[in-house]
Every structure is written in structure tokens, then in C-alpha cells.
Specification:
single chain; about 180 residues; mainly alpha; 2 domains; DUF2087
């Protein structure tokens, strides 16, 4: 059987998951076995609003929504972006507090969530992330800005789950785009 691509655009992933979950629960009392390949395809198609997988395949392709243009950078975000070189390293410690705060968010992205780090590992990440040689200040400021947490004896650090504001998200998007352009 030849493989063919089928486009499935899910506008509301949460509603899709609820619908698929209800369909799986509804069939559970009838069978103790996992659904077969075709039955699972039909359940997925039904959860997406189609009668079955054949109706999904017959449907005209849905145009993907155009990617929204990245939000414009504020003056502070632009100043922060200028503090980083082409490799994404912080060139100098910013003097302005708002630029410092935004730079900490960029460094925060270099850490994995839910992973404990030793002080030595944090230092290694921060040494690679700056060009001015002061990883100690960066480590302390990440903790002060509540982006990293540490045990009182400094034996373990963890990235905190934090949500950046719109200005910082715009900065992170621009920083990532610049990193991708530099890698290409």
C-alpha cells in the first residue's frame, strides 16, 4: 500500500483531544484491545470533525494560516539584542536595569526545564553564554531575577517555570531568528 500525505489542520487542539478521548472511552467497554490501524484513523478523523478517514482524505486541503509577523521590538528590547554577538553570547554586562532584566531571559532559555544543575554545570552554561568572563554575576542575577532557583548550600540549581511578558517574547523571537540566520 502506497503512503500518501493527508493534511490535518486542528484549530482547537484541546477540543480535538477531548473528542478523541470521549471516542476512545465510548469504545472501551466494547473491546479490551487497543483499536486497530483503520479504526484509530477513523477515530482521529471523527475527532477532527470528519465522518471517517476517507472523508478526511477527500476534503479539499486547508490553507495554513500565514505566520504572523513578529511583534516590533521596543527600544529596550533592541538595546538588549545589541548586547549579544552573532553567536548569541552576552558581550558586556548592561548598565541599564531593564536591559539587564531582558538579557537574563535570553540566558534563561539556555537551561533545560525540570533538570537539576550543579553549580559547575551552571557555570559552564554561563561561561559559554558570555564574552566578558563574569559567569558569577550572571548566575547570581538569574537567581535574583527569579529565573533560576538554588538550594541554600548552592549544591543544586533549577530553572524556574516563568512566563515572559510580551516585550521579552518579542526579544526572544528576534534573538532566536538572529541565531538561526547566523547558523545558516
Amino acid at each position: 500500500m502506497a503512503r500518501e500525505a493527508t493534511t490535518l489542520v486542528i484549530e482547537d487542539l484541546s477540543a480535538f483531544a477531548r473528542s478523541l478521548g470521549r471516542a476512545l472511552k465510548a469504545r472501551a467497554p466494547a473491546s479490551t484491545e487497543a483499536p486497530g490501524h483503520v479504526e484509530l484513523l477513523n477515530l482521529i478523523a471523527a475527532a477532527a470533525g470528519y465522518r471517517n478517514v476517507q472523508a478526511l482524505k477527500a476534503a479539499p486541503p486547508v490553507a495554513r494560516p500565514a505566520q504572523a509577523a513578529p511583534p516590533p521590538l521596543s527600544d529596550n528590547a533592541r538595546r538588549t539584542l545589541m548586547q549579544f554577538d552573532a553567536e548569541g553570547r552576552l558581550l558586556r554586562w548592561p548598565t541599564k536595569f531593564t536591559v539587564q532584566r531582558m538579557a537574563m531571559w535570553v540566558l534563561w532559555t539556555r537551561f533545560e526545564a525540570k533538570r537539576p544543575y550543579t553549580e559547575r554545570e551552571v557555570n559552564a552554561v554561563l561561561r559559554a553564554a558570555n564574552a566578558f568572563g563574569d559567569h558569577v554575576t550572571l548566575r547570581r542575577e538569574l537567581v535574583n531575577h527569579r529565573l533560576l532557583t538554588r538550594k541554600s548550600d548552592c549544591s543544586e540549581y533549577c530553572k524556574l517555570a516563568a512566563r515572559p511578558d510580551e516585550e521579552v517574547r518579542a526579544l526572544l523571537t528576534a534573538w532566536r531568528a538572529r541565531q538561526a540566520a547566523g547558523a545558516a
